[in-house]
Structures are given as structure tokens and as C-alpha cells.
């Protein structure tokens, strides 16, 4: 059956055909629709979705849809060979191969060497793992093809050095938070286990002072401090206690560290292999396939599987590498959050105390601020994060309480309860480092069009379409539409109250709305009943009934008016 299509007329001249049966999940369909809406306003858009939520499948669906319209040539660019191979495989499943040359998947290194011999101009350039797109080679790509549409895909639009992405991308589209994906069943819940704050291991991590060229911890110093038999034995004991018999990934600080860990685990009965940049491609592929089939229990790596590794049945992730990079932290723990049929939850074993400087993975992030360069994607001081989102009201066994080096920070059952009940404090959404709850409704402005939209936390709930946002209260916003009319909408943009054309709207206590008319006079709307009054009502209760007093008349908010 051919896909059903309908045409979207785009003001910028791009013709898009929407394919209805591309087997995307509901949130992927929503992200795709929002992207094409943004392309009406902007030529270059970045899309953020958490690791494990299907960015590559969404990418392929977007490319196919683009080619169904006026686009004839798409380039997909990644920064590593493994990502190129994975994208090529996904794209081929969508029926887009190399045969007609309409889709080319390549590494940025290959493209920078061979761009002069490339045929034709691309209509769309897609950058996978676009948080790497600040390199000069990407800037040159933008300059060489200014007319091409650009799309950046990433789980973590942030940089350690606080550099934003606005010189390459015009706007950012964010998806649900990790907590919401877990609550809706699209990502796996997790148990989080960590070294204790006053442990020897935490003191060793805190002693690291040197920085590498990228601003993160220096590998040489990390290897000297952490690549010791006592530390590796502690890593093994952590896996034995909390992830015995499970398949997992370990992140090490160096090639030597990875090989020492794999050797120690294998010696103690846990079949493990180390994979690093020096592992030949064919051997690496064979080892990964053995892991998928269960012949190998543990893959120990050095940043090889931080991005693009797709194996849903990873049952534990062990963090044995300190980092100051929020992107690296979330990319690594995200390898364990992919759902699979037989996986109830994932175990995250934090042997370097990263949750103390980043919060738990479910902590909400201000991606817009990081995208714009107003906030760095780096660690927070431990004094700010120490008690933020770590306490859980779970009954832990005495055996686990007595464990010398480790503590249970969060269990998957407590996490699910917290997510479903909206318990933000337990998830680290409030408290010393959380500030006000980021789930509050806020206005967001599109810099190019000047229009305003609405967002809850990191999720854009209404794309920019209002000339003005007068006021926000709870989950309602008082706005002016493009045609000059004014009204009140909910967080999704559904119209609740129409106020016609007026000068100003303002929310008052007691669920009242102050309306300043064009002539400067004021009237007042009761948001519970939509009744309008020329005088400001006084709200009070009498005998369990909520009343409004307007002049000498009393109005029930549930019944007809009663004269005094």
C-alpha cells in the first residue's frame, strides 16, 4: 500500500507531503509536525529528544517526507563511522537507499575532504548528534550551502564551554522530559545506585584538578587516580551486588582502564570485553553482535558507546568515568533507558558520584537556555546538588544499608510513583538547585518572527503564534492573536475565553480577569462562569457557596444572580 499523503503549503516555498503511515509513535509524529511548522519560519532547526526515544527513526521519516515533496537531494552527516552505518541501515528500512543518489549518509570528516567532488547541491542537510556541530567544519558546511534546509538532531543541546548553537540553528524544538517518557512507558524506569558522599571513591573523584582541552577532566590524571586494583575491585563488587546476571555497559576513563576492568570481570566469571578506538571495525562489530546475542555479558568502553549505540536490552550501565559534561552523563545513562519486552527496569551504577553534580537523569533541564548559550552544560557544585532529588521514601533492606561503599539513591518503583504523582522534589525539580518548578507555564518568543508561544518546562506546548502574551496564571495565558483579538487560552492553546479587541488583560486573585478596553475603561470577567461585570467583583463564601458581590447584587458562581 502506498502511503497516504496530503500537501502542506509552506510560506517559505518548500512543498512537503505528509506521509501518514510511517509507523511513528505519537510523540514522533508530533515532533515531525512541529518541525515542518518551524520550517515555515526558519531555515535551520535543532530538535531535542532524549536518548532512546527514536531520533534516528524520526530522522528517516522526516527525510522520506521531505523527498515526497519538492526536495530531491538530502545529505545526512554524522561525526563517527559507527553512526553513519547505523543511519544507513535505518534509512534503507524506509526504502531510501544509495541507488538514486537522493540520500547520502557520510561522516563530517569524509565530507570535509571530498566536498569538492560531490555532485549537485543538497536541499536538506541533517546533522546527527548535532551538539558536535560547533566544529569549524560544520560552519564551513553552512557557508557552502546557505540555501539548504538544515536539521540538527540531539538528545543534549548543550556544551561545557557555554557556547550556544544560535549561530547555526535559528530555533530549538524540545520534546517531553525523560521523566514524562518514563511515565508514559516509552523509556525504562531505573534503579540508581551510587557511592556514598563521604566514601573514599568520592574523595578520589573530588581530588581531580586538571582539565583537558575540552574542559573536562584530564584523562591522564583520571587514569593515574582511578585505574587501580582497589578501585576496579569495587567496580566489580558493585556489579556483583546490584546487577548479577545482567547484560551491561561500563564506561571507563582510558583504554588501559577499560582493558583492566574487562580482564578483572572475566577472571571473576563475568564474560567481558573491552572496546576502544583501537579495536578494528570488523572485530568491534563482531563483539557487539555477540553482546546482543548474550554471548558476552559486559562491554567495557571509552566513549565508544556514548552516542548511537542501539541495544534495547542493556540491563545495567556502570559509570566508572568522572565527567563534568552534562551531555556525556545523559548520553551514557541513556544507553540503559531504551525499552525492551523482557526488561522491567535498568540498573544505573554510579561509581563516581555523578548524580551529585548533575542530579538524577529525570531532572528537568533548561535546554532553551543551553541552546542559546545562557547556561553551560556542565556540573553544578556539590553543595547545590547534595540533597537535591536524592531522598526516597522507600523501604530498603538492612543488607543494602550496611553496604560500605554504595547507597540506593532511587528504586524503579519509587521513581515510577514519583513520576506518576508529579513528585518534583523527589526527582530534583525543586530545592536548592531547582529554583522554581520548571513545569510552570511560560511565554517563549521566536526571535525571527517576533511572535510568542507557550512552554511548560522544556516542552513547547504552543508554537509561536501570538502577537502578545499579557499575563500567565497557573495553566492559562492571556494573549493577543495575530488578527488583534484577545482572549484566554490553556497551556495547549485551546481558547477558553474570548474578550474581543482590548488594550490589556490581567489575571486577578479569585480567578478573575481584568479587561482594559480600547477606550481605557475596565471590565471584569469571571473565569469560572465567563460572565463579565462592569465593576470589580468581590469574591467570598457564604454557607459553603462561593459568591461574587458586584455593587448591591450577589452572584453565585454556580447559580443565578440573587438581588439583595
From TrEMBL:
Q: What is one term from the GO cellular component aspect held by the record?
A: cytosol
Q: Which Pfam families match?
A: Helicase_C, ResIII
Q: Extract the InterPro entries matched here.
A: Helicase/UvrB_N, Helicase_ATP-bd, Helicase_C-like, Helicase_Restrict-Modif_Enz, P-loop_NTPase
Signal peptide start-end: none
Q: Which residues form the Helicase ATP-binding domain?
A: 36-175
Q: Name one GO molecular function term.
A: hydrolase activity
Keyword set, alphabetical order: ATP-binding, Helicase, Hydrolase, Nucleotide-binding
The record's annotation in Gene3D superfamilies points to: P-loop containing nucleotide triphosphate hydrolases
**Protein name (record):** DEAD/DEAH box helicase
Q: Which residues form the Helicase C-terminal domain?
A: 231-391
Amino acid at each position: 500500500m502506498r502511503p497516504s499523503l496530503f500537501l502542506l503549503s509552506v510560506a517559505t516555498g518548500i512543498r512537503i507531503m505528509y506521509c501518514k503511515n510511517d509507523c511513528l509513535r505519537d510523540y514522533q509524529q508530533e515532533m515531525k509536525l512541529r518541525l515542518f511548522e518551524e520550517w515555515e519560519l526558519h531555515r535551520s532547526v535543532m530538535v531535542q529528544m532524549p536518548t532512546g526515544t527514536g531520533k534516528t527513526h524520526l530522522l528517516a521519516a522526516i527525510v522520506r517526507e521531505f523527498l515526497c515533496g519538492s526536495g530531491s537531494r538530502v545529505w545526512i552527516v554524522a561525526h563517527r563511522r559507527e553512526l553513519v552505518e547505523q543511519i544507513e541501515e535505518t534509512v534503507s528500512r524506509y526504502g531510501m537507499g544509495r541507488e538514486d543518489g537522493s540520500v547520502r549518509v557520510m561522516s563530517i570528516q569524509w565530507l570535509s575532504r571530498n566536498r569538492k567532488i560531490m555532485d549537485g547541491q543538497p536541499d536538506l542537510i541533517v546533522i546527527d548528534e548535532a551538539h558536535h556541530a560547533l566544529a569549524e567544519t560544520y560552519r564551513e558546511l553552512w557557508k557552502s550551502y546557505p540555501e539548504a534546509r538544515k536539521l540538527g538532531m540531539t538528545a543534549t543541546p548543550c556544551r561545557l564551554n557555554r557556547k550556544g548553537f544560535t549561530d547555526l540553528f535559528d530555533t530549538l524544538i524540545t520534546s517531553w522530559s525523560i521523566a514524562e517518557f518514563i511515565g508514559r512507558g516509552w523509556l525504562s524506569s531505573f534503579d540508581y545506585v551510587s557511592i556514598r558522599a563521604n566514601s573514599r571513591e568520592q574523595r578520589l573523584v573530588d581530588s581531580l584538578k586538571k582539565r583537558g582541552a575540552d574542559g573536562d577532566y584530564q584523562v591522564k590524571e583520571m587514569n593515574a587516580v582511578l585505574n587501580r586494583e582497589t578501585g576496579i575491585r569495587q567496580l566489580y563488587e558493585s556489579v556483583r551486588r546490584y546487577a548479577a546476571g545482567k547484560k551491561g555497559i561500563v564506561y571507563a576513563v582510558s583504554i588501559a582502564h577499560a582493558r583492566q576492568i574487562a580482564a578483572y570481570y572475566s577472571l571473576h566469571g563475568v564474560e567481558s570485553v573491552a572496546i576502544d578506538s583501537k579495536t578494528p571495525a570488523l572485530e568491534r562489530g563482531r563483539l557487539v553482535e555477540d553482546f546482543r546475542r548474550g554471548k558476552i555479558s559486559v562491554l567495557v568502553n571509552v566513549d565508544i558507546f556514548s552516542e548511537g549505540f542501539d541495544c534495547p536490552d542493556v540491563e545495567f550501565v556502570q559509570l566508572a568515568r568522572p565527567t563534568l559534561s552534562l551531555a556525556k552523563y545523559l548520553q551514557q545513562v541513556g544507553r540503559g533507558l531504551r525499552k525492551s519486552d523482557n526488561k522491567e527496569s535498568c540498573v544505573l551504577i554510579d561509581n563516581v558520584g555523578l548524580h551529585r553534580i548533575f542530579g538524577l537523569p529525570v531532572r528537568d533541564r533548561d535546554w532553551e537556555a543551553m541552546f542559546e548559550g545562557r547556561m553551560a552544560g556542565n556540573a553544578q557544585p556539590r553543595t547545590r546538588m547534595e540533597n537535591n532529588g536524592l531522598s526516597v521514601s522507600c523501604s530498603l533492606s538492612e543488607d543494602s544499608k550496611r553496604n560500605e561503599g554504595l547507597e540506593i539513591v532511587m528504586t524503579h518503583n519509587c521513581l515510577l510513583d514519583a513520576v506518576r504523582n508529579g513528585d518534583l522534589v523527589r526527582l530534583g525539580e525543586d530545592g536548592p538547585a531547582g529554583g522554581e518548578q520548571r513545569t510552570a507555564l511560560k511565554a517563549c518568543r521566536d526571535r525571527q518572527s517576533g511572535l510568542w508561544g507557550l512552554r511548560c518546562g522544556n516542552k513547547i506546548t504552543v508554537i509561536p503564534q501570538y502577537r502578545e502574551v499579557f499575563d500567565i496564571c497557573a495553566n492559562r495565558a492571556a494573549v493577543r492573536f495575530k488578527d488583534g483579538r484577545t482572549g484566554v487560552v490553556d497551556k495547549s492553546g485551546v481558547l477558553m475565553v474570548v474578550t474581543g479587541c482590548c488594550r490589556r488583560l490581567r489575571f486577578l486573585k479569585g480567578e478573575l480577569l481584568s479587561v482594559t478596553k480600547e477606550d481605557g475603561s475596565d471590565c471584569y470577567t469571571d473565569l469560572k462562569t465567563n460572565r463579565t461585570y462592569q465593576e470589580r467583583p468581590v469574591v467570598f463564601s457564604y454557607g459553603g457557596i462561593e459568591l461574587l458581590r458586584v455593587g448591591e447584587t450577589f452572584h453565585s458562581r454556580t447559580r443565578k444572580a440573587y438581588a439583595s
